[in-house]
Amino acid sequence: MIFLELFLTYLMIGTVTFGGGYAMLPMIQEQVALRWGDIISQQALVDFVAVSESTPGPFAINMATYIGSVVGGQQGGVPMSIFGSFCATMGVVLPSFVIILIVARCYDKFKENKIVKGCMTGLKPAVAGLIGGAIINVMATVFFPAGYTFAVLTDVAFYVSLAIFVVMTVLALKKVHPILIICLSAVVGIAAGYLGIL
After folding, report:
1. CA 54 vs CA 12, 128, 150, 169: distances in Å
2. Helix H or strand E segment including 161
3. Are 68 and 89 within 8 A, CB to CB?
4. pLDDT digits (tens, 9 = 90+) for 28-59
5. What is the CB neighbour count within 10 angstroms for residue 38?
């Protein structure tokens, strides 16, 4: 049953990934391609990464809700879309909810333990690597949608996307509020689309 598969898939993703939504992104991409690649394309997934970042709430939950909605919607319209969202969202939330309850009860007692300190030290660079891998995958889809070819260098859309990326990165490093960056990039994207550049 598709709804049980949604729940169990996201339960597994929520259980084995550490570091938040971006650390989950490689596994989400892999599982979506493996299980529902005929329903959700990689381009649609990348598009929703942008939407998830510009909507309220945690990134991982937004992604689970979206994928659950799309997959569930294939089973019979709006009611099944809502149920699919519910199953995927509960799956991704449940492991962290249970684990954080346990950790909150135990952490104060064990935070100076060498094993716990070593575990935390080892997890930090691993999470950074997972996030870095997800960023590379998303950037490849954004800048090279047709694959790695030299033809992309003759496309104006590539340079517009690159300019937006550079400007928004500079603004983010200057600590400009994320909502302002999102709104500004949306306005630039709309203008570029309206002018037929993107």
Report:
1. 26, 22, 32, 16
2. helix 156-173
3. yes
4. 888 888 888 777 777 777 777 777 777 777 88
5. 8
Mention every residue, 6+ apart, whose C-beta is less than 8 A from residue 92.
Answer: 10, 11, 13, 14, 24, 60, 61, 64
Give the C-alpha separation, 160 to 8, whole Å.
Answer: 40
SS3 125: helix
Q: What are the tens digits of pLDDT across the range 175-192?
A: 988 888 888 888 888 888
Q: How far apart (Å, rounded) are the C-alpha atoms in residues 60 and 12?
A: 13
Is the confidence at residue 20, as pLDDT, over 70? no
CA-CA distance, 88 to 68, in Å (whole number)? 5
Give ∠ CA 60-126-135 in degrees, rounded to 5: 55
Supply 145's token pair.
């949608």
pLDDT, tens digit, 9 for 90 and up, residues 99-154: 888 878 877 777 778 887 888 788 888 888 878 887 888 888 778 877 777 878 88
Helix axes 78-110, 2-16, angle to 10 degrees: 20
